[in-house]
Amino acid sequence: MYDEEPTITVTPAPPDIDFRDFIFITPVADVPAIYVYLSEELKGMSRPMRDVNVDYPPSQIIIDKMKEPKFQNWANDTHSTDCSDIAASLLNVGDESGYILEARPRLRGNLNVYENGIIEPNMEFHQVYTDGKYVYDPRVTINPIPKGDWEQHIKDINPDGVIISDKYKGLK
């Protein structure tokens, strides 16, 4: 029998801990049970991405669109589909409250963008669709990303600075 009181150690401490964010791992000979924190991480962020806030749900119509296999194949094709095409497509699917965000590097042509599992350097700009609460960027994840987390992610992978605006220009 294990006589000691259980201890809780979470390193690093995730924000807004919820029991659903953990899995239970059963003990092996003389090792107490442990819970392991689960959360999707965004490249460059020093903490896991926050979960969806149930009080402010993401757009289900956008989530459904991003989960369609045909849309995923089209969106992940970096040779023929531009980020601006994806953002515009999701804007057309979403309700009228959504808009396009654009990230531009402080030094022209020096934007790092995380796409399909790797950081692509030397970009001019990157556009994403947002409903104001979440960013929808299917080349990062098919899950909605809290807007503040996406902004932190794009800033963290661009140490020379980035400007994020809803006044998008594209290649103009």
Structure description:
The strands form 3 sheets. This protein has a 5-stranded antiparallel beta sheet with strand order 8-7-6-3-9, with helices on both faces. Strands 1-2 form a two-stranded antiparallel ribbon. The protein has a two-stranded antiparallel sheet with strand order 4-5. Mean pLDDT is 81; it is low at 19-23. 22% of the residues lie in helices and 23% in strands. The protein is an alpha+beta fold. The protein contains 4 helices and 9 strands; from the N terminus they run E-E-H-H-H-E-E-E-E-E-E-H-E.
What's the gyration radius in Å? 19 Å
Distance between the termini: 70 Å
Largest sheet: 5 strands, antiparallel
Which strand order do you get reading across the main beta sheet?
Answer: 8-7-6-3-9
The low-confidence runs, each spanning 5 or more residues with pLDDT under 50, are 19-23
Order of helices and strands: EEHHHEEEEEEHE
Query: Helical region count?
Result: 4
Write the layout of secondary structure elements.
Elements: E1 22-25, E2 34-37, H1 60-67, H2 69-76, H3 83-93, E3 99-105, E4 111-115, E5 118-123, E6 126-130, E7 134-136, E8 145-146, H4 147-156, E9 162-165
Antiparallel strand pairs: 1-2, 3-6, 3-9, 4-5, 6-7, 7-8
